[in-house]
Amino acid sequence: MYQRQSGFSLVELVVVIVVVGLLAVAALPRFLDVTDEAKKASIEGVAGGFATGVLSARAQWEAEARPSVTLSTEKYNTVDYDGVDFWLTRSTESNGSSTGFRDGYPYALNPNDTNYPTSITNQSCVDLMENLLQNPPKVDTVDNAPNDSNVKYSAQADNANSTCTYIQLEGTTEHQFVYEIETGRVTVTLQ
Description:
Layout: H1 10-63, E1 68-71, E2 74-81, E3 84-88, E4 106-109, H2 122-132, E5 139-141, E6 153-158, E7 163-168, E8 176-180, E9 185-189
Parallel strand pairs: 5-6
Antiparallel strand pairs: 1-2, 2-3, 3-4, 6-7, 7-8, 8-9
């Protein structure tokens, strides 16, 4: 009496392995593309939330009849947005000359109504992102971000151009968005 063995032959196993390998090779680029698309969608969502926060702070300032604080002879715009006081941009100096900014866009935090910032700093860019967004991703200055693996965005100020640049640190791409403080515009750059 012969016992019949059941199972797969070596040839059948090799064919299955080759077919699975070919399917994996065909599908892998699509999965990688999905990951990159998710990163792009993530930064577009964060930038959209940031832009909404900028416009909401400006709308709050308008709704409160454009509140301001006078320091020495200069009038500076300010607003309490969602429990946080912000200094806002202003379009004219007390002597009537143009500042180059449009009125009412978040410039920096206003902790005490006594010192309007004279420049944009990396830390003020961090403060803007942390306080304009409801649940912001972890952000730090461009100098400190490489030292903390939990940081998702680095923030860098460009005082000459009046911008804050936020770079996504997840993965090898450097997707970014730029907040143009002069106009309140938020622009996304996908790399």
